[in-house]
Amino acid sequence: MLIVGLSMKTVLVALFTYQCERCRTTAEHEVTRHVRRITVFFVPLFPLSTKYRDTCTACGRVIEISRQQAERAGQGGWADGTSSSPGRSLEQPAPAPTPQDRPVSEWPPQDRPA
Questions:
Q1: pTM of structure
Q2: Burial of 112 (0-12, 13-18, 19+ CB in 10 A)
């Protein structure tokens, strides 16, 4: 008898504070990596898929982002390569970035007027 299954592993890549385009609240956003793996006898063998997501902690909005965007977020920089919102500890909240800190067409999304 062979026991085969799937497992999911979630890893926090980065935390940012900026205004959510859905709820308009300046809140923490988690960038996470989700890896689905095939298992045999409960031992993970190889990954089937990897997804990266940006989640607003205020309203729960989740969007998928590219691997490159998640890697830049993990390095403490925005999509344009600047470090306007560096990686930080939970004890020292970072100020919310202004729209001038990031380009309109890049992630994290541009703050939109109400």
A1: 0.62
A2: exposed
The CB-side HSE value for 83 (13 A sphere, CA atoms) comes to: 6
Is residue 88 within 8 Å of residue 94, measured between CB atoms?
Answer: yes
Sign of CA dihedral 18, 75, 48, 2: negative
- pLDDT at site 104: 44
User: Which sequence spans correspond to the domains of the chain?
Assistant: 4-79
What is the predicted pLDDT for the residue at 51?
Answer: 95
- Fill in the DSSP letter of residue 68: H
**Mind listing the pLDDT tens digit for each residue in 55-106?**
999 999 999 999 998 888 877 654 444 443 333 333 344 444 444 444 444 5
Q: What is the pLDDT of residue 114?
A: 46
17, β-bridge pairs = 28
Measured at the CA of 34, the angle between CA 29 and CA 38, to 5 degrees, comes to: 170
